[in-house]
Amino acid sequence: MVEIPDSLRSLFTARVEERGGRYVIEVPASEIENEAASPGQTYRVALLPTAGPETESTGSSSDGSGRNSGPPDPPVDEGEVRDVTIESVGDQGDGIAKVERGYVVIVPDAQPGDQPTVEIEQVKENVAFARVLDGPRR
Fold it and tell me: How far is CA 77 from CA 127, 128, 135, in A?
């Protein structure tokens, strides 16, 4: 099993492509929008192989069709209650927590280091919005 450090900022699936004698991995726009990466910055990238040869040629899906159904489902559900750790503050002043796979949870009125209990109110493909149920703990 691969050890994943706490400093992991993002995890996504991409294909390595050759372009004009160079090899390129495209970063999804959502990773920029959710502040996991910034244009012009340098990042350490880890490459993990796909689960098996069938994944490369046919993709994978939860419906068994063999078609690639896109990114994995968000790791949180609306109404879910969980404890999070606020890692940073976004441009709008809201707290930002990251959960499984680097998925971003936005928490209003939270500061870095806070560890509130939150309820997930809205879930989108790459970000969720939550409200604090229990005050911030430090």
Answer: 11, 9, 21
Looking at residue 61, what is its pLDDT?
41
Mean pLDDT of the chain: 80
Which domains are assigned to the chain?
Answer: 81-134 (2.40.50.140)
Quick check: 113 and 129 in contact, CB under 8 A? no
pTM: 0.53
Alpha carbon distance 104, 25 (integer Å)? 22
Q: CB 45: neighbour CB atoms within 10 A?
A: 9
Tell me how far CA of residue 96 lies from CA of 17, 20, 32, 93, 131, in angstroms: 32, 38, 14, 9, 12
